[in-house]
Amino acid sequence: MNPTPTANPYLRNQVLSAKPEELRLMLFDGAIRFLSVGRKGLESRDYDISYTNISKAQKIVLELSNSLNRDVMPEVTEKLSALYTFIYRLLVDASTTREIKHLDEAIRLLKYERETWALLIEKAAEQPAGNGAA
To answer: Which end of the chain has less Cβ packing within 10 Å, N or C?
Structure first.
């Protein structure tokens, strides 16, 4: 069943009008939100809820990894790719073992990455437009 384009027009408009760096921030927000719901599912032993939301977060983590531009600062993107692979593995472990500690670690790392990304966006906005920093 495909979602209708008008299911959430505010979100649709927000995504379509966002800059690439803002989209990445939205991915972090979505993954953290889904993992929080998945964590509550594990706590309440509602494994359908936990599985569904952890799976959504896994897809987002894959997108974060796949969208890295490996041509710019390859040493940094290699480390970020390894981090996202580690987070993905934590989510797989959380799904299979149903241990909350794996989700807690993934949430902690994603929150840290989100904060770092938000600071980079803020710092880039402070730079003069013509200096080439991105």
So the answer is: N
- Integer Cα distance of 15 and 13 in angstroms: 5
> pTM for the complete prediction?
0.81
- Backbone region of residue 133 per phi and psi (left: phi > 0; alpha: psi in -120 to 50; beta: other values): beta
Render pLDDT for 103-124 as a digit per residue (tens, 0 to 9): 999 999 999 999 999 999 899 8
Grouping H, G, I as helix, E, B as strand and the rest as coil, residue 133 is coil
And the tokens for 63? Answer: 């997108």
Q: List the domain boundaries for the chain.
A: 19-119
Identify the CATH number of the domain defined by range 19-119.
1.20.120.340
Q: DSSP letters of 32-66?
A: HHHHHHHHHHHHTT-HHHHHHHHHHHHHHHHHHHH
Mean pLDDT of 80-84: 96
